[in-house]
Amino acid sequence: MDYFKNKASEWDTPMKMEMAEKFVKELLKNYTPGKDQKMMDYGCGTGLVGMQLSKLTRDVVYLDSSESMLEILKQKLGAIKDFSKSIIHGEIHSYNQKDIDLITTLMALHHVEDIESALNHISANILKPSGVMVIGDLKEEDGSFHNGEEIPHKGFNTEKLTAQLQKAGLKVEKTYIYNTLTKQEKTYEQFIMIATKNNDEKATKSK
Ligand SMILES: C[S@@+](CC[C@H](N)C(=O)[O-])C[C@H]1O[C@@H](n2cnc3c(N)ncnc32)[C@H](O)[C@@H]1O
């Protein structure tokens, strides 16, 4: 089931755009993408993060499991006549080129059922040696962020997520709260996590 099917056409609200801008701004405080770099926006939705970083990188791969969200992204890229980007409809395992310098994911990881499998795949089959992963997501919450709907993860305990990244061969360099969202008078914290690929391939594979 595509949870985002009926949300796609109204996704790009000022609030969502501001959320993506804040994340990109925070990312840029910690990491400077290179003009020769290839990045992936994982769980890209309508491309709010990737389209900003597109100006600073050589190439962007947009990946998302929702056809409806990607349809809006295609319209947006079409409007600026950018037909050069790869748009992949599917799970993270659909990509295996190991040529990505930077992978970003904003507010998507809590929708991913098997985090361990996704992180292992990113580390082993997506990121180049010394590649970087930047996550923006919710800290643990009580389920009210999605109005009690069934979502794989009610935010994240960043210590537990750090350990999961570590196990997958990704070293967390930094994590901290960078934003607070208010929804129906409740507040939710957003964290950023910056991790680099551990280049000890043997250690990564044996885990
Ligand atoms: C909350 S939206 C965030 C979209 C975008 N990153 C943004 O900040 O506007 C989460 C996105 O993750 C995608 N998603 C959820 N589970 C996924 C999965 N297992 N693999 C790839 N994308 C997924 C959804 O389709 C949706 O577009």
Walkthrough of the structure:
The structure is a single chain. This protein has 207 residues and is of the alpha/beta class. 30% of the residues lie in helices and 29% in strands. The chain contains 6 helices and 7 strands. It has a 7-stranded mixed beta sheet, with helices on both faces. Helix 4 packs across helix 5. It is globular. Mean pLDDT is 94; it is low at 202-207. It binds S-adenosylmethionine. S-adenosylmethionine binds next to helix 1.
List the helices and strands and how they pair.
Elements: H1 14-30, E1 38-42, H2 50-53, E2 59-64, H3 67-79, E3 86-89, E4 100-106, H4 115-126, E5 127-138, H5 158-168, E6 170-183, E7 186-197, H6 201-206
S-adenosylmethionine (SAM) binds near residues 20 and 64.
CATH topology: Rossmann fold
Largest sheet features: 7 strands, mixed
The helix-strand sequence is: HEHEHEEHEHEEH
Rounded mean pLDDT score: 94
Number of strands: 7
**Beta content:** 25-35%
Structural class of the helix and strand makeup?
A: alpha/beta
User: How would you describe the oligomerization state of the chains in this entry?
Assistant: single chain
The best one-word shape is globular
Q: What is the CATH architecture descriptor?
A: 3-Layer(aba) Sandwich
Spatial ordering of strands, largest sheet: 3-2-1-4-5-7-6
The parts where pLDDT drops under 50 for at least 5 residues are 202-207
Distance between the termini: 32 Å
Query: What's the CATH C level?
Result: Alpha Beta
Tally of discrete structural domains: 1
Number of helices: 6
Q: What is the CATH homologous superfamily assignment?
A: Vaccinia Virus protein VP39
Percent helix, as a range, is 25-40%
Rg on CA atoms, Å: 16 Å
Listed once per kind, the bound small molecules are:
S-adenosylmethionine
